[in-house]
Amino acid sequence: MVDDTRARPGDEMPPAVNVVRVCENGPLDVQADLAIEGQERRHRATLCRCGASQRKPFCDGSHKTAAFVATGEPDTQDSAALAVRDGPLAVTPIRNGPLMLKGALEIVSGTGRTVTRGTEAFLCRCGASAKKPFCDGTHKRIGFAAEGGGR
Predict the structure, then answer these.
(1) What residue ranges do the domains of the chain occupy?
(2) pLDDT tens digits, one per residue of 58-86
(3) H helices then E strands: how many in the chain?
(4) Domain at 19-142: CATH architecture
(5) Are 91 and 47 in contact (CB under 8 A)?
(6) Could you give the 3-state DSSP secondary structure of residue 65?
(7) Alpha-carbon distance 98 to 137, whole Å?
(8) What is the pLDDT, as a whole number, of residue 12?
């Protein structure tokens, strides 16, 4: 899955609900009014979570050759419905660490089940977290390095 759609605000309307879909053995598909650090605004992006992409934070399909294995059906977390489900979603790749998402977001499984809802999440992009799709700090232990990124 490669981020070739590059839909921009002038091309379509932002979704009514900001959604992060966790793909089985693959990336994160995000639909929102996205403000990805260092990128043009867009409404869709496919973000790497295996750690192998040469186009971080975007997926370049490397999860296939890296034999990345991660469920698309993470456990459901207790979360309350959001009063506001849309609006800007800021995505900041933390230097050599996770993706920090700020703004209304609903994380859903590959089959569409709501995993959790909130206004902030730290999602694994090193591929090694035991709590995928969430970061558990493993990137520090394994020495994950990613070019670019915020902090």
Answers:
(1) 19-142
(2) 999 999 999 999 999 999 999 999 999 99
(3) 2, 6
(4) 3-Layer(aba) Sandwich (3.40)
(5) yes
(6) helix
(7) 8
(8) 79
